[in-house]
Structure formats: C-alpha cells, structure tokens
Amino acid sequence: RIRVLAAPQRPCPRWPDFCPGLMAGSRFLEGAAAVRRCRAAPSPAWAVRQGAIAAARVAGSCGGWCYGSSSSSCPAGEVVSMTGATRRGAAVGLGSTWPAARRLQLGSACGSTSSRLLSSSAAARGFAACGTVADVGRRRFCFPAITAEEAAAEEGEEAQPTFKASLSEPIPAAKKSDQDNRVYRPMDETVRHFLNPAHFFALLRSHGTSFFVGVPDSLLKDVCAYFTDNVPKGSHIISANEGTALATAAGHYLATENIACVYLQNSGLGNTVNPLLSLCSAKVYSIPVLLLIGWRGEPGKKDEPQHLLQGKLTPSLLREMNVPFEILPDYAEGAFEVLETAYAYMRREQAPFALLVKKQTFEKYKLSSDQGSFSGSEMLHREEILEHIIDMFPADPLVTTTGFTSREIFELRASKGQPHEQDFLTVGSMGHCSSIALGIAVSKPSAQVLCIDGDGAAIMHMGSLVTAGKSGLPNFKHLLINNAVHDSVGGQPTGASSVDFATIARACGYRVAERARTVDEIIPALRRLRDGEGPYFLEVQALPGARVDLGRPTTTTYQNKEDFMGMLGRI
Fold this sequence. Notes:
By secondary structure, the chain is of the alpha/beta class. The chain has helices spanning 51-62, 98-101, 121-126, 148-155, 197-206, 221-230, 242-256, 269-280, 305-320, 332-349, 382-392, 404-416, 433-443, 455-460, 463-471, 501-507, 519-531, 557-569, and strands spanning 2-5, 65-66, 79-82, 133-136, 139-142, 212-214, 236-238, 261-265, 290-294, 325-327, 353-357, 398-400, 423-425, 449-454, 476-482, 485-486, 492-493, 512-516, 536-541. The protein is globular and about 85 Å long. It starts with a strand and ends with a helix.
C-alpha cells in the first residue's frame, strides 16, 4: 500500500555515496521508520529491474523520498511513504508513469500534518501504474494499472519509458477488455533469482555498515569484487586471515560504534574461533559483527572433499559458539527481511550474527579495477613456472599449496605421463603448506623437500616463516610463487605486489633468500635453489590467471596420501 503524506518537520539523515537500482544521480534515505524532511531527490526512473525491489525495501524502512531538486529543500508535501505491503514488494512497478505522479501538492508546508486530496486523479494513478492502492488523506482509492502512454495522454505530456521491474525479458500480456479492471502480474515464482551485489551493498549501507574486511571466497567472489571496486580503500581491507579480519572489525566498532561486515569462507571459521569466543562474545567484550560466510560443502551439494565435512558442521559450529545465523536469500526482498532480523539482534544483544551464503546466491559481477598485479612480456604464468620446477626437481618430494597450484601440478604430471606419488597436494588447510613440508624435512633428513607456496597462503600464516627459518634444516627448500592476487577465488589483491618476501625470509633466519621475475632469471634461480643448502627461500613473481579448462585431480585425497607416503617410505 502506498500512502501519500505531508512531511513532518524532521532532519534528513546523511546520504550514502551510492544507491543501485536508481538511475544516474539517484539517492535514497537512511534512517528511522518515519516520513522525513529531506534535501535531495531520487531520479524519477528508479523502478528498474530488481533495483526497484531494493529501492522499495529501503523506502519502506526509511520513511520515504522527497521529489525535489538536489539543491533545494523539500517542497511542501511532496513525500511518498512506503509502508506495509510496500516492503513485501507491492510497489515494484512504481515510477513508470512518473510525470503524473510527481505533481503531488499536499499540505501547506513541510511540517504540516494535514493532507488534502490529490488535485488530479491522473496524478494519483501515477502511483498506481502497477495496479495498487493509494491512501489519500482519509479516503482510499483503488486504481487499475495504466501505461505511461495513457498517463501522458491524460496529462498532455510526452510519455516516459516503462521499465520492467522483475524480468529482463518482457512477458506478453493477455488482451483485456475495456471493462476488465483486474490487475495481472507475471507468473515468475519458478524463475531463478540471484541477489545483485549492488543491492546487497545498499541494504548493508542502509543499516549503517560502511566498513568491510575479510578473506575472499569463491562463493562470495562477486560481492567481494563489488566491495573491491566500489568501497573506498580506507573502508575495505583484505585481511591476512579470518581471525585478523574479525579483530579489525572489532577495532572499527570500538572506534565508531558502527557494525562492520566480515566476509570469509566457512573453511576459515577455525581462524575466527579465538576472537569470536574471547573478544566479540557477549560474555567478554560484547562486540557486534556481521559475518558473511560462504557455505562450501553445503549438505546435498556436490563439492570438493576438503569442504564436505566443514560444510556439514558449519551450522553446528556456529551454534556451539552461540552465534545465531540465517541463510541469505538469493533475492532482494528476502535479503531485506533477513538483514532486518540480523541487525535487530546485533543492536539488541551486542553480539555477532552470521549469514550463510549458498552457491550461486549472488548475481555475476566482474572485477574491473586494477588490482596491482604483475605484468611484463618476459614474465611467466604460474603453470609455466611449475613446469620448470618439475624438470628441475625430477625425484624430490613436493608439497604444493591450496588452489590452482595443486591442480596445475596434477595436470602437468598427467600430460607428461608421470606418476603423482611425488606430490602432496594441499587441497585444503590454506597457509599450512610450508609447515607440512617442514615436518617432512625434519623426519626425512636425507631427502630434499620442496614446498611450493603461494602469496595469499604465505601471508595467511606468515609466522611459519620464523619457525622454518630458525629450524636450520639444510634439506628444506621453500619456493613462493607470487602473482599478488587470490587467483582461485576471484582475483582480489593479496597486497603481495609490494611485499619484499626475500628480505622477510632472511630476517626470519633462512640461510639464503632471493627473488626471480623474468624467464632468464627463473631457470638459474631454480638451479641455485636445488643445489644450495637450506633453509633456502626463493620468490618467483608471476602473471595472474589460469587456463580456462583447468581441471581438478582425478585421484582421491586418500590415494594421494597413500601414494605419497609410499614414496617417502622408499627414501
């Protein structure tokens, strides 16, 4: 239901910097559920695709829009308050006959609590373009859906374009007689929905969340990419690991009293246990944080073995830590309701709340900004570097890191007709590859053990460099392929483009540490790594990206373990 009201004398809250679903220059209000006096106006053509849904939801919670120029105060009475059914989607089609609708003149001035009847039935029908009900003063008018052309003809104006609010393709409507006043809507209940990252971001902003921190995840890559492109650098931090992300969000709350959003894959929940239970818990410091968790290994969904148990246990882990959670719906209307619940809990209990994100919840969004990754005609991609490593270390045990690295090693072995027993593929346990290799090197002193690490993984648990460096093991070799991005989960930056890993490794106790970048540098550096005494560290800078047809290991994790242990047993 749409109610046309005069505006009471109340200040307008601050405007956010961005509102999706509105045309250029549009804005929406944040704030309490009341009709407000405001100083700026959204564009008339805001009812565009699912953006209209998000916009209507925000209007419902904020009290309404004022249709005036952005440089003047709110004209008398030109306020539309969205309440009740509007929050549930009744006003999705608003705005398609705006020239008539915008001419509301109610009340004598901002601050008046009285309302007069609309001077024109066409103006009222402007709000009924989708076939709805308008409350004017104390009288109710029911209007059938009318087209932009009909409204324009009645008002003597040129028609504005009509925007489809729910489907990208128009649905042919059955021909109606002149006496048929029934309202029809598309039968779209079975249409697959996706949550627009921009709409979700706008809903978070409407609740006062403007700070985002976390570790990228493949299920969240579209919304993470949106954050990377659209959130100011000072308000978005890609963290070393999930625990540090949660601690950073806690610091933001202590400084601003604003709730931050922490995004992560459920595999990273283990890293959050300590700060969740000993920092943010309602029984310790009671700090509210919104957790956005990619639900890998969701029961009933096909996924990789390293995610299956984690996915099954994720809800019970949250329950055991006293973190309430909801599943994030894949449509804006449902997301609005869930966020209302989440923020109400966080403000009332002063404690964290989690949103579980299923596979294919978000609409596609491609990262567009420059992420500071490496470039150069003489540089190599990771797979090309791995091929040189295989040739240089033909018989030594290799421990490869999470993500594309292990997948590329597996396919390189297959293409060369080589067995896979030499390689331990660390498909999970991000950041622990070097520690696994260190444990092997300690136990097999006669074998040269090579760890093939990645920049994101090394940063996640960089303290392991100290342990490896201080070990003094001559057979421990550590090679880090640095492409400066989280390649397998969307290409967000790791921050490693400006990190001098070789200097850090030397400071941590590695006997030798160096860096190679071009193809002419890589081959000699690999030879020195093979022949030198460890602990030896080599950083190889690489181009980002992987083959589009890159597959996954066809052997099971059990087979990989048994074959690798069998190979080690022969050393």
